[in-house]
Write a structure and sequence with these properties.
Number of helices: 13
Number of strands: 0
Helix content: over 70%
Strand content: under 5%
Distance between the termini: 39 Å
Radius of gyration: 24 Å
Largest sheet: none
Order of helices and strands: HHHHHHHHHHHHH
Structural class: mainly alpha
Shape: globular
């Protein structure tokens, strides 16, 4: 039995190693291509013949009619930051109401919210687009922030689960001392909820940071100065441009991944604690 367990463990690790290699190969190819001296797609070799940093300098320091990466990056960053702040506030408020307060219709509203949140957001995109068009918010970063943030409160479940683990006696003690609900939330609950707040911040930031579908639908004026990074990089893959800009596209893909990677590394401890705590109860 011991030999079987050892053999099973060995085969499991071999299988996981193979899956990891398969998963990492495309990422490694993107990285090495970003340093390639050949501007297009080179399928004859995995590693480039010549290495250069020109692709990174071009995308950052030398914008042209096709590449306006710093503008796209700034647009994406602004949208992501405002969405992150608004969404985190909305989710925290909804979670606090459902976890720490008792009111008529609470369970029914929670059930309805969960059911509504199960429907894919892509189903409502056309309707959302025409609503925003009617009020002049298409091709607008403000319109995108509103849509990204508006329904964020429906994603309250994990944050509520974390709050459910906080002893009710803490809130009761604060009420005895004369604190109102707002004071309890800001002085008692928020300091305890730092890990789940970090989780929510990262999750809210990632939605607009990597989104392509909704951004492409909304920012359709053809003006590249309004684009996000996802749209700008996608445009480089046009058949008329790909042979000149593919290596630059790979460099842009690496750059856009750096901020979120740094954010994960810095806040990894809080992120893991938040996910684990939020999964304890629902």
């Amino acid at each position: 039995m011991k030999a079987k367990r050892i053999l099973g463990t060995v085969f499991s690790h071999i299988g996981l190693a193979l899956l990891s290699i398969i998963w990492l190969i495309p990422i490694l190819w993107l990285v090495v291509t970003a340093f390639s001296g050949y501007p297009g797609i080179n399928i004859s070799r995995f590693f480039p013949e010549t290495w250069t940093l020109k692709n990174f300098s071009t995308i950052i320091l030398h914008p042209d009619s096709v590449v306006k990466y710093t503008t796209w990056f700034n647009n994406t960053l602004v949208i992501a930051i405002f969405t992150c702040i608004i969404s985190t506030v909305f989710v925290f408020m909804v979670s606090y109401a459902f976890s720490c307060m008792r009111f008529k219709g609470r369970k029914e509203i929670m059930t309805f919210s969960l059911i509504l949140n199960m429907f894919p957001g892509v189903l409502s995109m056309i309707a959302v687009y025409f609503i925003l068009k009617s009020i002049g918010l298409t091709n607008s970063h403000i319109g995108m922030i509103i849509v990204y943030s508006a329904g964020s409160g429906l994603g309250y479940l994990i944050v509520k689960g974390y709050m459910d683990t906080i002893p009710a006696s803490l809130r009761e003690a604060a009420k005895i001392e004369g604190a109102n609900e707002f004071q309890i939330m800001t002085h008692v609950i928020i300091p305890i909820c730092k890990p789940i707040i970090v989780y929510q911040i990262i999750s809210s930031f990632l939605i607009p940071w990597g989104d392509f579908v909704f951004a492409k639908l909304m920012l359709n004026s053809g003006l590249s100065k309004d684009w996000t990074v996802a749209i700008g990089l996608y445009n480089m893959l046009d058949k008329a441009l790909i042979n000149k800009y593919f290596s630059i596209f790979c460099a842009g893909g690496i750059i856009i991944s750096i901020p979120i990677s740094i954010l994960f590394v810095i806040m990894q401890k809080f992120y893991v604690e938040g996910v684990a705590g939020g999964a304890t109860k629902g």
